[in-house]
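Table 4 source record.
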Amino acid sequence: MIKPLIAKVKPAGGLSYILHIGLLVLLPIVLFALVRLGDTFIKLAFSVIVLSKWRMFAVRPRFWPANIRANSVDIIVGLSVVLFMTHSGSQWWQLIWAALYGVWLIVIKPASSAVMIALQAMISQFCGLMAIYLTWSSAPLIGLVFSTGLVCYLAARHFFDSFDEPYARLLSYLWGYFGAALAWLLGHWLLFYGIISQPTLILSVLGYGLAGLYFFDHRERLSPMLKRQFVFIIIAILLVILTFSDWGDKVV
């Protein structure tokens, strides 16, 4: 498997490190300013997110797919934040989203421990799915199915790669397929709880629960009691979601 070449290219200290942190702080500020300037500059905000990942292509083309996949969770979160800011009803909410994105860039994204990489995958899946259904809930069902499956696949691949899982690709495809299948099924009765869609909520509950089971099993700390607790909590939350949902043939 081709490893991304840019994962370790980070300034360790000195002036380069200060400049690096400064650029990370500047990015959310630039996005906030572009969103505040109006709809004309929204596309430019999206472009800034993509251009900030220029190092993905600063290598030979044969490494581009691996680098794009390695940076996909960061791109998903960045694009989602821009969408959240454009749909926010007030300037304060836009500032909050910009601040949260700064925390992602400075604290969460650079971390390399298994726990933090798992957290990165969970955040990217939740933000990506939330942005998809918040923005394109009226899009053709095939678009929702494809985009949901893609986000689930990329998040799962990021998660499993941190554990050197030999079946990372297969398991990621399975999770992506499951997400797409669930999107196809629930897309016929697309429900929202506030701003969170039902597919986003269900896939988040299942994904976080299964990731927790895998993590503890990989660390050989998954006792039968802990496994039953995970399964019980997952089933209980899903039953509450499904029981108290309005299953009319409509978009709520």
